């Protein structure tokens, strides 16, 4: 996850680094929480079917930190951090709801950490990849983060790199 900032942020104790983007910076880090944990429990076709059974406006009662295996890089840099994916309900849709919400809470923790270290407050998120195509997950993320979710204009990194190159020519 990255946050557009006016100044660079570096905090290795939290796994935070920055990349220059023109006259600004993309500060953030890479969490081990994400799609890999979903793939460990569900086939892609099941994700769509189960997501349709989730009301994203309702909070899950589950408190997960869904890592695929022990170890986290960001927003908590702890190589021994244990996954928290229990208790597992019998209902797969309820389990998926808890996983999606857990991922969103980790994302929220990351943005709070960046703000604590001098980054700007989060005002919106642009998202790409499989998660961005899941409307239920996007709605959960919007609720947990408290901001709007928008899909990026293009999913390929090359499109963004081309825009940067074009801007540099002006």
**Number of domains as seen in the coordinates:** 1
Oligomeric category: single chain
Principal-axes geometry comes out as globular
CATH class equals Alpha Beta
- The helix/strand order is EEEHHHEHHEH
Instruction: Quote the CATH topology.
Output: Nucleotidyltransferase, domain 5
Percent helix range: 40-55%
Query: Strands of the biggest beta sheet: in what spatial order?
Result: 1-3-2
What's the gyration radius in Å? 17 Å
Give the N-terminus to C-terminus distance in angstroms.
28 Å
- What structural category arises from helix and sheet content? alpha+beta
Tally of alpha and pi helices:
6
Mean pLDDT: 91
The profile of the biggest β sheet is: 3 strands, antiparallel
Q: What CATH architecture label applies?
A: 2-Layer Sandwich
- How much of the sequence lies in strands comes to 5-15%
What's the name of the CATH homologous superfamily? ATPase, nucleotide binding domain
Low-confidence stretches: none
Strand runs, count: 5
């Amino acid at each position: 996850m990255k946050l557009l900032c006016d100044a660079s942020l570096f905090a290795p104790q939290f796994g935070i680094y920055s990349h220059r983007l023109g006259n600004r910076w993309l500060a953030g880090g890479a969490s081990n929480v994400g799609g890999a944990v979903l793939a460990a429990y569900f086939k892609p076709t099941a994700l769509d079917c189960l997501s349709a059974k989730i009301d994203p406006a309702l909070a899950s009662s589950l408190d997960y930190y869904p890592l695929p295996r022990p170890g986290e890089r960001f927003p908590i840099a702890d190589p021994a951090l244990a996954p928290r994916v229990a208790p597992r309900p019998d209902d797969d849709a309820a389990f998926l709801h808890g996983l999606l919400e857990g991922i969103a809470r980790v994302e929220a923790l990351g943005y709070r950490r960046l703000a604590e270290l001098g980054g700007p407050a989060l005002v919106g998120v642009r998202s790409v990849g499989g998660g961005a195509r899941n409307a239920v997950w996007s709605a959960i993320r919007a609720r947990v983060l408290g901001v709007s979710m928008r899909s990026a204009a293009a999913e390929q990194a090359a499109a963004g790199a081309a825009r940067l190159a074009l801007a540099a020519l002006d």
